[in-house]
Amino acid sequence: MHVAGAIHADVAAPAPVWLTEPDDVNALTSKLWSANTRRDADGVLEIAGLRVTDLVEQTGTPVYVIDEDDFRARARRWCAAFDGWRVFYAGKAFLCTGIASWIAQEGMSLDVCSLGELTVALRAGVDPAKIGMHGNNKSEQELHLALTAGVGRIIVDSADEITRVERLAGELGVRAKVMVRVTTGVEAHTHDYIATAHDDQKFGFSISSGAALVAMMRCYHSDRLELLGIHSHIGSQIFDTDGFEIAARRTLKLFAQFREATGALMPELDLGGGFGIAYTKADAPADAEYLAAGLREIVAHEGNAFGLDEPRLSIEPGRAIVGPAGVALYRVGTIKPVEVGPNLTRRYVSVDGGMSDNIRPALYAAEYSATLASRSSTAKPVLSRVVGVHCESGDILVRDEFLPADVAPGDLIAVPAAGAYSRSMASNYNHVPRPPVVAVREGRIETLLRRETLDDVLALDPGAMGKQEK
Questions:
Q1: Which of 12-21, 254-263, 313-322, 362-371 shows the lowest mean pLDDT across its residues?
Q2: Going by fewer Cβ within 10 Å, which terminus of the chain is more open, N or C?
Q3: Residue-wise pLDDT tens digits, 429-468
Q4: CATH label, 6-66+324-448, candidates 2.30.33.40, 3.40.50.1980, 3.30.420.40, 2.40.37.10
Q5: What sign does the dihedral 421-425-428-429 (CA atoms) show?
Q6: Three-state SS across the chain?
């Protein structure tokens, strides 16, 4: 490594060690794509029976595409693997009324964490009793809607919130069903910004400090609250059950301490979500069946150690269901080779999207893959960087990928595993309208979210309304 950075080092190519030149640049790594994605006889990427070239003629680019049958199959697979558990879809991964209705139809519950997400769920007709409400700083408006709608559980996150929920429940004449979110002190092996169980962060009540037990006792003795159990979430994009084992041990010890103090048993333990998916060839996520078997064994073993009957259990997969079902499609605008050192050139492939439709590479240094989608190629693979249109040098969609040497303006580039946290974290940076989200099933397109227009973007600017450039 050169002291000035990797691109200054005397190496043959500025690629990560896990990325190797493919034998066939047209080949698709199946774990990165939805089950119904393939290339047709002409080498054009086909999603659920629809060629992407035909799709973008109707939708334009950029566009997010969700393989509906793949999404539904993953939802059913998680429910089957965790049979007997309550499986909540984590709406923050991606939510709209269409997705919420799919979730309800597949028998899942739904986790929301804002007024907007709760409103979407209710307007989609989701049974309020199957909705869980998260958030570390819930407003009175959010809590009022949750209580009046009759959501199945509110996950309380602070002493101030407990006070707020008690007061509102009293004013409304209801008894609020709550879970206490705890931090277990587990250091999940993930990015700092998406690790959520260490003590020094904004979520939950610390077990190690005793704050969690105090919060549970307060909720248990409140006339306005019904304490359902404990909620634990250790982070996101996690590939194994090691962290869950420690979290289960510490939360079940807390169950035992609560039983000793009150003589009562906690009904439910939610182990959260955070189950990872493959974004690159190097990623090796566990499947739902493996995770279910591991978590069942962990809970049974740790529960026996404390002499506890198994509580009702729940989990919250989001990314694991919608992530692999989604693809982002872009059109190439420019190709720019840049010399970055002696005998070292990096090829920049600029597309018509960027960090406004996928902030994760800039925010977390997240890695993605890409492929030429509008045709096959016999050209040599060339190490490339897929970048966007924004006025930022960090506007990178795919940091490193081998693409054909003949990629040219007008070609389509597909980025897999784009279903989670792409549209849900999208912005209007540089006044760029957000792309649409479409579902594809058996060759047919359904719009889940329409494309924003410039009028949509400017609608909040009084000075721009009703005026046009001369």
A1: 12-21
A2: C
A3: 999 999 999 999 999 999 999 999 999 999 999 998 776 6
A4: 2.40.37.10
A5: negative
A6: CCCCCHHHCCCCCCCCCCCCCCCCCCCCCHHHCCCCEEECCCCCEEECCEEHHHHHHHHCCCEEEEEHHHHHHHHHHHHHHCCCCEEEEECCCCCCHHHHHHHHHCCCEEEECCHHHHHHHHHCCCCHHHEEECCCCCCHHHHHHHHHHCCCEEEECCHHHHHHHHHHHHHHCCCEEEEEEEECCCCCCCCHHHECCCCCCCCCEECCCCHHHHHHHHHHHCCCEEEEEEEECCECCECCCHHHHHHHHHHHHHHHHHHHHHCCCCCEEECCCCECCCCCCCCCCCCHHHHHHHHHHHHHHHHHHCCCCCCEEEECCCHHHHCCCEEEEEEEEEEEEEEEECCEEEEEEEECCCCCCCCHHHHHCCCCCCEECCCCCCCCEEEEEEECCCCCCCCEEEEEEEEECCCCCCCEEEEECCCCCCCCCCCCHHHCCCCCEEEEECCEEEEEECCCCHHHHHCCCCCCCCCCCC
pLDDT over 70, % of the chain? 93
| Every domain of the chain and the residues it spans | 6-66+324-448, 68-322
Cα 13 to Cα 160: distance, rounded to the nearest angstrom: 54
What does the block give as tokens for 417? 């595993």
Q: Which residue has the tokens 């493959």?
A: 278
Class of domain 68-322: alpha beta
Confidence at residue 342, expressed as pLDDT on a 0 to 100 scale: 80
Catalytic residue among 79, 96, 113, 391: 391
Count of beta carbons in the 10 Å neighbourhood of residue 209: 12
Fold agreement (6-66+324-448, 68-322): no
Verify whether residue 113 is a known catalytic residue.
no
Residues in the chain: 470
Residue 125: pLDDT over 70: yes
Strands 412-416 and 371-372 come out as antiparallel
Residue at 417: amino acid letter: A
Mean pLDDT for the chain overall = 92
Tell me the angle at which helices 97-105 and 115-123 cross, rounded to the nearest 10 degrees.
60
* pLDDT of res. 239: 84
Neighbours of 424 (CB within 10 A): 17
